[in-house]
Amino acid sequence: MSKRTLVTAFFVLLFFLHQDSWWKNDPRLVLGVLPVSLAYHVVWTLLVAFGWLLVARFCWPDRFDGEPPKPAPGNDGTGGDRPVR
Amino acid sequence: MIPVIIIGIYLLLVIGLGLVSARFFRGGTADYFVASRSLGPFVLFMTVFGTTMTAFAMVGSTAETYELGVGTFGKLASWSALVHPACFFLIGMPLWSLGKQHGYVTQIEYFRDRFQSSALGYVLFPVLAGLLIPYVVVGLLGVGSVVGGVTIGAFPEAFAATRGAVPPALTMAVISSVVLFYIFIGGARSAAWVNVFQTVVFVGMGLLAFWLIADTLGGIEAASVRANPAKAVREGNIGELEFFTYWMIPLSVGVFPHVFQNFLTARSAKSYKLLLVAQPISILLAWLPCILIGFWATGAVLPDSGAPVVPAGINANAVLGLMVGKLTSPVVSGLVAAGVLAAISLDSQFLAIGTMFTRDIVVHHFGADRFSDAATVWLARGFIVLMVVITYLTTFAETRQIFALGTWCFSGYAGLFPLLIAAIYWKRVTRAAAFVAVILTAVVWFGLFAASNFGVDRKFLLGGMLPVATVFATCAISVVVVSLLTKPPSDETLAKFFPRPTNS
Prior knowledge:
The structure holds two protein chains of two kinds. Chain A is mainly alpha-helical. In chain A, about 45% of the residues lie in helices and about 5% in strands. In chain A, helix 1 runs antiparallel to helix 2. Chain B has one domain: Sodium/glucose cotransporter, CATH 1.20.1730.10. In chain B, helix 4 (about 55-70) packs antiparallel against helix 5 (about 70-100) and helix 7 packs across helix 8. Chain B is globular.
């Protein structure tokens, strides 16, 4: 299994784990400070950052690293039909 | 009076920074609109983060938590931590590359070229620019409410009607003028420099307020224990389907015209690496203190009198200002108010509106050779001034909750996400589909916004889901169905936007 597949699977898992319905009615405070659902989402957010670190480290698309090809002659980026004169 | 002095010092620093950065302005449209595509990883991250965090993050999150509990973090902050970098990665980087290759500065230039249609730009412009106005209004309202909250009693004679507080109308006028000043002189480069400074200030001041408020309330544990336990849970505050469909709201970041412009300022694709990793952590640092302050506000009492810090029935937008104003010193109040002002970075939005009007409407219609580079910059400046005035006047009619208004604005942009992602990754998407998708999405969004009494009905849901789900589905279905029923794009267009990979 490629690194890219593993990282994608990690994000898909995180996507579904966001819905922490098991704690939706639990008012307990973690460490006496954070409501348990809030504490869960803090950890979830840190895992997301870790996931993006994996992307930057192992799944970086090399095709963007070089200079993009030069535009075709006459392409000024204004797009589509020529402007009305 | 002390908070007013500190706010004044902050504004002078912003003006000074604008002046210094303007010395590096190289002249011409490339520098004014996209800082000559020269920003490195740190400045790019600070600019994008500063742009994506607004009054929504500080004032709105505190107010929403006070009213609907700590689920506010899960429904927006943590979803944003996942979805924002996904937008940067899946949309920002490809568009940065295409923008550099073909010289795009605005989204509309990309869409016109991708779908080979000049008319599509005229359909998109009112939608993209129109949705930016409520976004900026959200920011200005946040400024007005917080500065009002921390300056109560500062000017008892001059502003008797607002209990001595600086009136929101005056605050909003001053802030609009300052933003206008540095955008006017330095464009994207000034906005980037100021955003770096502002991001440091607003994250730092949020943490400072958090720490000092906790201290006054007897420590973070005592503050949390005293808070209303009904606000520590989601049940009774937000439905499960509603909570889930919030994942679509941050998709708006991929479609915001001002973030698109930020994408193009990068020097290289590698500049995005820091952005991907730092954005989730920074969202956590910026949102968590404000969420906890909102949670604590549900049970906080003044240490000496035992009276509630937040009186019953007060507008929730004022919660942050009240917590800071009553539980910290005037110096801290001023610093935090400066932090809120820093969070409300309206510069990129104003710059994007000016850029779109100039390039997508005026220059596109009359022809690029009709205007000199300098004249184009002056056109943008003139339109920005006009938009600032219109936005400022709009705030006088606006009293809705910041979070609700922001959510509606973000929903409109998020609704267009399927079209953008299809344009980048699906060869079969057609011009007709783009027209139908933009028009249908705008009509459905406006219909739902009107049905919610223009944001007043904050519990407006469809089948338990946020309206954004309906808007998003409308766009996605119309893109797919119409594309499959109409003529595919030409080989020339496909070759331009989907070049075959080379082996070199």
